[in-house]
Amino acid sequence: MASTQIAHSELWSTAFGPCPGVSVVSPRRADPTVRWTAAVALGGQGRYAGAAALLEALAADPRTPRALAALAAVTRASHLRQLGGHGAAARFDGLGIRLATAAGRSDPGATELGIDARSALVDGLVGLAADAVGRADVGAATSLLTRADAVLEDCAAPRPTIRAGWVRAELALLRGDPAVAVRAAAAAVAGARRWGSARHLLKSRLVAEVAGILAARAGLAEGTGSAGSGGSARLDALAEEAGELGLVPLRWAALLAAAGLAGAATDDPPVGRREPQNPSGAAVRTNERHGRTAPGSVNGAASDTARRRHAAAHALSVMFTRSDPQLRRLMREVV
Predict the structure, then answer these.
(1) Is 328 exposed, middle or buried (0-12, 13-18, 19+ CB in 10 A)?
(2) What are the sequence ranges of the domains in the chain?
(3) Which residues are registered as beta bridge partners of 302?
(4) C-alpha span between 311 and 227 (Å, rounded)
């Protein structure tokens, strides 16, 4: 299918437009661009098994153009990374970079949509940077984002730029610089609004909210969130919105971030010495630090933190039923 056709299809609207929750039928015999777009849409809904089947078939098919094979690899990496599988994700990101480097130029339509080799190269570099953030490796993440920025200068598609903004924000939080994180996240939000992808906008808002909460705790004027219950309530609202849109992974991430940040509000160290936060990983480390079960409130009712963790566990169970064996192993490690 030509890039101009896919851009106006219902499938593209599900993967990158305003309707991310629409049911997707896995088109295993379709054009590679259609199959990759379907895999992206399925992944956004947490239907990882269906996405993995399409991505593996693309990788195994010698007729798949290298740019699409590269995108298939970095997409698989992103699904693994969402559940903390940074080592496995890095291997797929590296494969994507190699395939993208070997690919030729794509047609202008593919370049504009971000389904070309340069976009895949940025995705791979940004993905490796996110993997480095997950390992708390500031030096590697900084170097990889610098390389990605150089490629972005010749990349017209909005999607890779938005994704780079997420990781810039996460890296800034890792460095203990929430003011920079707020600015990077705000740029991602603005880019996602212009592009029109509901999923990318919601993820950008989630990253921005976490950055804003941490900036506010640090007493920075740039902080757009607020410490304590107000920020957690907004994260709850984002989780609700994600559920309504059918974006189960983002619902899970928002709930865990709300639980982790609210639970940490009274006993975290200052921001500069804080354990690294990774909004893509839903503040899992902070959440785990406060135990698997939150304490009840003084009247015996479940606390807000316990309620959020319970809801997050339910979202994770939904993703578990929709996942392939590799991702199921990762989920067992999360819980």
Answers:
(1) middle
(2) 1-156, 178-322
(3) 296
(4) 22
- Angle between the 158-175 and 138-152 helix axes, to the nearest 10 degrees? 160
Tokens 């953030």, residue?
133
Amino acid at 275: E
Tell me how crowded residue 289 is: count the other CB atoms within 10 A of its CB.
14
The upper half-sphere exposure of residue 129, i.e. CA atoms within 13 Å in the direction of its Cβ, equals 26
For residue 171, what are the contacts with CB-CB under 8 A and spacing of at least 6? 129, 133, 138, 141, 142, 145
199-221: pLDDT as tens digits: 999 999 999 999 999 999 887 64
Q: Calculate mean pLDDT across residues 96-101.
A: 96
Q: In this structure, are residues 85 and 77 in contact, taking their beta carbons and an 8 Å threshold? A: no
Instruction: List, as one string, the DSSP characters of 97-166.
Output: HHHHHH--PPPHHHHHHT-SHHHHHHHHHHHHHHHHHHTT-HHHHHHHHHHHHHHHTT---HHHHHHHHH
How many angstroms separate the CA atoms of 246 and 212, rounded? 25
Query: CA torsion sign, 293 to 298 to 300 to 302?
Result: negative
Architecture category of domain 1-156 in CATH: Alpha Horseshoe (1.25)
Question: Residue 213 has which token pair?
Answer: 């909460």
Residues in the chain: 335
What pTM, to 2 d.p., does this model score? 0.87
Q: Which two tokens mark 137?
A: 């490796």
| Cα-based torsion angle of the residue sequence 167, 90, 277, 250 in order, rounded to the nearest 10 degrees | 80
- Is the per-residue pLDDT at 94 higher than 90? yes
Burial level of 233, CB count in 10 A (0-12/13-18/19+)? middle
Contacts of 20 (CB under 8 A, 6+ apart): 14, 41, 44, 45, 198, 199, 245, 246, 247
* CB distance 309 to 293 below 8 Å: yes
Residue 18 φ then ψ, to 5°: -85, 0
Tens digits of residue pLDDT in 288-323: 333 333 334 434 445 788 999 999 999 999 999 999
Tokens of 166: 């997420």
